[in-house]
Amino acid sequence: MSMPAPLPHRLRPLVGRDPGEPHRAATPLELLYDLTFAIAFGATSAQLAHAVVGGSLGAGLLAFAFTTFAVSWAWINYAWWASAFDTDDWLVRLLTLVQMIGVLVIALGVPDVFASIEAGTLDIRVVVLGYVVIRLGQLALWVRVAVQDAAHRRDAIVSAAALLVAQLGWVALGALELPIAVALVAAVPLYLVELCGPILAEFRFGRSPWHPHHIGERYSCLVLVTLGEVVIGTATTVGATVQDHGWSVDAALVAAAGMALAFGLWWVVFLIPSGEVLARAPRRGFAWGYGHIVVFGSLVAVGAGLDVAALAIEGGSLEPAAVATGVALPVGVLLAAIFVLYSLLVGSFSPFHTLLFVIALVLLVASVGAAAAGAPLAAWLALVVLAPATVIVGVEAPRRHR
Fold it and tell me: How many of the other CB atoms lie within 10 Å of CB of 42?
């Protein structure tokens, strides 16, 4: 039996793909591209954990919000383009490699963002450099679409123009290194250009041919990558603690809770039938796609909270309630985001799902209260893990099955 010949990756016209193409799945290149974001998310999680332990919570959260958006937005730009136009030819592959290099540069700039905000300024020079590299690749891809696909030319031109205008603004903002308050005000119009550019292109010139099941799978892939960062980060921190102080019950509990929590959150996230609903209601794609920035950020923050819990085993100045809040709060934000996204996607708010969400929030609040009252680590961690478990059991019960 002869082996099939390798597929050639010669240049092909960069035109819109069939949004109803059967069996469309993520390519090996897209999966490799996603792995670079594990590094960027890992750097963000580690820096947030250090900020919390170091007593710089406010500055840490602000830096975390900035870097999480930057990393997530870079991925979103490429993912939706690839879903609509990817030909997997050699030039697309090389321009994707350029963007992967830019993501790694962004990861290298994350510590500077955290340090500068703590000092009262905003140093985003390295992050902006990473974005310049990314957008050299992305703009080249949009130019190819504008030249080769007459049906989507105006969409490509608007998308490319929005990227270029926003990037010029970020370059100017990065060069100035302004005080944090001034920088935040100056960043508002840049965020508006970033977010509104794709909306204008989509609603003014017609939907780009993205594939609903493919884009649903792509978001699922990044969720898995982010969950992997949660598991790896927790294991690394617990391992370092064990190496310095030996095994303890608390160290084992944090490791087990990290794995159980990642598993539970994975189950909750994948309760959303994204591909099926997006195929029926593509206009809801923007709310769903943009809303996942909160999902990605909360997952990264869960990893940071578990890191703080592992570091707290060694002792320190953090109160148990603060440690519990660091884990419970991002879990609560994630569950809230999933509840809202699910409701928006299916177009209705279920009273039963609302009840499950409220019960989960009560368990998370109870975990913080238990920690404040002096409950052992095992007790409040168990309450945190029970929060997503409650949602899973309620939705998966046969009598509630749809």
Answer: 21
Residue 255: name the closest of 313, 171, 175, 193 by CA: 313
Question: Torsion angle, CA of 34/35/37/39, rounded to 10 degrees?
Answer: 180
The DSSP call for residue 2 is: P
For residue 179, the SS3 value is: strand
Q: Which of 210, 224, 43 is nearest to 130 (CA)?
A: 43
What six digits make up the tokens of 269? 């996230």
The amino acid present at 285, given as its one-letter code, is G
List beta partners, residue 179: 121
Q: Region of 120 please: left (phi>0), alpha (psi -120 to 50) or beta.
A: left
121: β partners: 179
Question: How far apart are the C-alpha atoms of 363 and 48, rounded to whole Å?
Answer: 24
Strand, coil or helix: 50:
helix
Please tell me whether residue 35 adopts helix, strand or coil conformation: helix
Residue-wise pLDDT for 260-307, tens only, equals 999 999 999 998 888 888 888 888 888 999 999 999 999 999 999 988
- Are 106 and 48 a contacting pair, CB within 8 Å? no
Residue-wise pLDDT for 227-272, tens only, equals: 988 888 777 777 777 776 677 777 788 888 888 999 999 999 998 8
328-359 pLDDT, tens digit each: 999 999 999 999 998 888 877 788 888 999 99
Residue 261 near residue 331, CB atoms below 8 Å = yes
For residue 384, the tally of other CB atoms under 10 A from its CB is: 30
Instruction: Report d(CA 383, CA 385) in Å as an integer.
Output: 5
| Inter-CA distances, 187 with 10, 49, 96, 180, 201, Å | 41, 25, 27, 10, 22
Q: How far apart are CA 336 and CA 338, in angstroms?
A: 5
Contact (Cβ atoms closer than 8 angstroms) between residue 276 and residue 242: no
Which CA distances in Å does 202 have to 99, 159, 206, 281, 286?
A: 23, 9, 5, 14, 10
SS3 state at 272: coil
Report the C-alpha dihedral over residues 225, 231, 233, 236, rounded to 10 degrees.
-140
The residue behind tokens 């240049």 is: 11
- List the beta bridge partners of residue 386: none
Give residue-wise pLDDT tens across range 121-138: 999 999 999 999 999 999
Q: What single-letter DSSP state applies at residue 64?
A: H
